[in-house]
Structure prediction request, 116 residues.
Amino acid sequence: MTLMKFTVPTGRTTFFEQFARRRGYKLEHFLPDFLSKDRTEYRRIISDYRETLAELLQENFTRQWTDWAHKHGSRTRNQAHGSPGNLIDLYATVDVPECEGSDCPTSVSEDCVRIR
Prediction:
């Protein structure tokens, strides 16, 4: 797992500052535990890290990108699988969620034909 220096546009805060604001404690105080190979006791910290990263990705990239596209008369498509974010939230934030495979679900087959 990689810790990133994550700078968000609003206020130019770091990932650690955002983490503390959102989760109510400082991740820095738990880094040795967070980075240890024995993670069974630290599942809450890892879950909080992943949740914070997912929120920041959705708020500071995917949602802003979709808003920008709409202001410019366009739509967004996204393949969120493999992302550190919450896939359901990320797919819900874009206009056309994409996945691997050649078959389109029946409910979106008309959109699939138009996009191809």
Notes: The first strand starts at residue 77 and ends at 78. The radius of gyration is 18 Å. Residues 6 and 85 are 14 Å apart (CA to CA). Confidence is low (pLDDT under 50) at residues 1-8.
